[in-house]
DNA sequence: TTGACTTTGACCTTATTTGACCAAAGAAAT
DNA sequence: ATTTCTTTGGTCAAATAAGGTCAAAGTCAA
């Protein structure tokens, strides 16, 4: 951890300032332009994106190659207090059984992060999609499914 | 947000706007005229049709050469007797690759079943959760995930 | 002096744009 | 009826324009 600002820190701050201006809808940049602005190699930009704008940190990055290529950066506004989403990611982990999943749903329901209707739907989708899987595999699929559905509901529009 | 747009993107938007106006019945264009309008070579139009108006994305394109030649474009409504969710289940099936998934998302976006933000989130979750899986397995997980997320959004509260 | 973080560069993948050449369908001429 | 333009649209591959990956080399604090 450097005390003085590294190039990476500067680029990070620059992008975050742009995001502040951009508001909703996200921000679009060209990798080469940004690299020229900071007089660095283009792959430096990828490093900044990977280390500072990861989904764990609440960002989504999409990009396209070729003519008309771009990099888009979206900041997920935490509309629910504290880091509920990172807590969910932590709690679910690699694999989760039905009992743990149920307990998690109940907690989210209790705290009104989830509507009753959505909880019912999630239960039935979890059951439907894992019923024919071998238990060990079912746990991993359940984790992926539950994590994605919850994050989608909590962050989506 | 000022979208970066390639020529292809502009032509795509132009055709989609024409289709919106045209309603049922489809739309007829002259390849050469369109090419002149956008000051490009005629084969550019074929490229746009191939990449943006594929049957995977829900379009039908027919054409005829010679004097009085034309290109007709029809947009298909996603339709299933049991409703959009059944249509989605059927379309996704047991396994789906990223290209098919993207086509489905674009199609739902085109028909306003999905918000832009939700589409971005879904894309990112699909990528994140399948990136370390072997391709064959990734396809099945992607199918499960995409199906669940879409149904959750379309049926939920 | 080691370990984590950063910086660089060589090489790779993908999307778009262009142009030369091909094929079909109607129109005109024989 | 058949052949020969003329008018369209189709195909494909090369050139161009992005962005991605990965590992080696460099830095810096503990």
| Average predicted local confidence, pLDDT of chain A | 93
From the structure provided, what is the oligomeric state, counting identical versus distinct chains? Answer: homodimer
Order of strands in the sheet with most strands of chain A: 1-3-2
Largest interface: A-B, 33 and 32 residues
Our estimate of the beta-strand percent of chain A is: 5-15%
The global form of chain A is elongated
Instruction: Give the topology string of chain A: H per helix, E per strand.
Output: HEHHEEHHHH
Distance between the termini of chain A: 36 Å
The total count of helices of chain A amounts to 7
Strands of chain A, total number = 3
Rg of chain A from C-alpha positions?
A: 19 Å
Describe this protein's structure:
The structure is a homodimer of 157-residue chains. The first copy, chain A, has 157 residues and is mainly alpha-helical. The first copy, chain A, folds into 2 domains: 7-75, Transcriptional regulator CtsR, winged HTH domain (Phenylalanyl-tRNA Synthetase, Chain B, domain 1, 2-Layer Sandwich); 84-155. The first copy, chain A, is built from 7 helices and 3 strands. Chain A has helices at 7-22, 31-37, 42-52, 84-92, 98-110, 116-130, 135-155; strands at residues 27-29, 59-64, 70-75. Chain A has a 3-stranded antiparallel beta sheet. Chain A starts with 6 loop residues before the first helix and ends with a helix. The mean pLDDT of chain A is 93. The interface between A and B is medium-sized, with 33 and 32 residues. Chain A binds a DNA duplex (30 and 30 nucleotides) through α3.
